[in-house]
Amino acid sequence: MPEISKEQLTTLAARGATNRGIVAILGRPLTDGERLLVDRARAVAGLKKEKEKKERRTGADAVAKWVAERNAVPCPTYEASPRRLSCKDSLLEFMRTYLPHRFPLPFSPDHLTAIDRMQTAITTGGQFAQAAPRGLGKTEMAIAAVLWAILFGWRRFLVVVGADLDASKNILKEAEQELADNEMIAQDWPEVCGPIVLAFDRPNRSNYLTWKDGADAGKPCRVECKTTKLVLPTKVGVPTGIAGSIIVARGITGSLRGMRHTTASGKTIRPDFCLGDDLETDESARSPDQVNTREALLNGAIMGMAGPKQKIACVINGSVIRRDCLMDRLIDPKRHPEFRGVRFKTVYEFPKRADLWKEYTEQRQEGMRRGDGGAAAHAYYLTHRAEMDEGAVVGWEHRFRAGEVSAIECAFNIIADHGESTFLSEYNAEPKEDRGGLWRITPEQVASNLSGIPPRIVPAATQHLTLGCDINIKSGLHWTLTAWTSETAGYVVDYGKYPAGDTPLWTERSTISEEQAIFGGITTVATEVIITRIYLRQGTTERVHVDAAGFDCGYKMEAVFAGVQAMRGQVGVCSLFPVRGVTGKNYHPRQAVRKGDAWHVSPYGNSNTKTLFFNADTWRERTQRAFSLPPGCPGGSLSVYGSDKQVHERFSREVCAERIVDILQGDRLGTVYVWHRDPSTPNDWLDSTTYAVVAANYAGIKFGGKAVFTLPSKTETPEQTNAKTMTETAKPMAPKPTMRERMGINRRPTGRPGGFVGGWR
Is the pTM here over 0.85, yes or no? Predict the structure, then answer.
């Protein structure tokens, strides 16, 4: 059996070996002396471990104590200083007292107006929108408004909203930085700034911050200092309107609904102040859909943030990027009177001596090309300054840059360097209208041109009721029903879509063909709108029937022909016909069996079905222009039913989906309109409304041209009507032979003409 020494036996026992283990090693029982030695070794080892454990515990306690002392925030008893109290009721005084580094120049009258309206909105729960030129300091004023509102307890839950999350985070970060670095604010608000100073650079540290003294000694500060969220600390004695208040950052298209915050006292608060700063980008401002989306979010999600019995304050700062952008709408007192919008400008009145400024601009541009940096132009201005300044009215006389001596010189330097359009948009909040045409209809004009007559009620003086239906295999059948008086006053009495909602007419997964889907759509619309639906004359129970209905045959024409032919015997005296729009430069009324005002009837397709062709440029322009006339105005006006413009938001956008960008004149082609379509907006209801207007002229309503014929009287039988529909009532005009025909060359085969509809599929 192996024998071990006393030292080895002691080591085994100290390392935790049991008696049984030692016996197994020795191969014999322990003697009394060995057992005593083992017990003593174990006792010594235990004492040593206890000592080491105590030493470790003492070290950890020391570290914990050091950490606690390091994270303890000293704070004197709350007491509002006289300087602090002097700014409680004045946002302007707060800016001058605590933020002079952000506002080093004297304030202009525009600044004072904006500051006063911001203060009113914050203190009373109102709204304010300002479109300010670049360089006016609107973002600086926004940061000051946030700090003033939360430090004085005017608002407890502030939401900073930007065009995206990054933009709003920048404003929140600057507000946090003022609370962390502004010594004057730290002196007057130690209960707020003390914890934020420690947590600003290390946000995770905020979880360990405690108060060092007072009734809250050892209690957590409950401060959060993150990139998208700032929660002010809570301390006994601090007014409840300040302690635990919160600022969060959001993007306009981010999560804006359902925001809430629970304070240390267990009270749940909801947003009561929203600051919107530059809510749109250049891209979104040029998309009507995105502008409408942002406007809807502002009206709905943002203005509905506050809880019950609360009135949310809202301040919106921005620039007018283009006409009818979000900011342009908010400062329009007719569209949003609640925002008390103001359009601030760099130049309110331009100088009288335009000739001198023209010379100045030319000298500056030439000097820039030569490399003198505009020195010659500057010298010219100094020489003639009195004359060149005459009549000028600027928004802020201190708004000029290094090397310039006046605000008006700065303005003309921007015009010379970047162009008048840039200056008017970025610095004067009044961008030019888009190029082209003498006029332009807007969705707001269409939606606001209301007749006040309920839907499906036909005005008493109506002579004809006409239907236009656009067919799109993807978006479905869009139709518009218009009523017309003998004096060419038009009313949109109904419009709709089949299938309802965003359901397409046909997809590749459909169990039927495209032709069958089109045929079914035509028969459904004709049945539901012309046969089944009831239209009553205003003030009576007299039912009014549809006189004429045109169905777009720009795609799958034979299917359209079949659908129209199938319904002719079922719609009574209503004349159903295929209709086709052609661009002005491609419109040639050849082989016409009937001619009208920029329209004609001629055979079309393999079946030679008589189809109504029209000059799409002429009639689309007439249709859009009609909405610019007051409701009921003779001579070609159009208004929409009802008294609520919100109902017609989508319809009005589609009516304005295209605009004239140029008008060409030529001896050979005459007047040709160049149209541009907004790719983000469908134009189906523009098409269907145009078809309805053309159908009205076909029915006998005059639009400045002579109506060639009128529809048969309603006393005729359906058989008599259908026999006369789309047939001659007078000897047709013989078309002049074309050059190809005179030379004996066969005519080119009939194909799908481009333009009004076919070119958009």
Answer: no
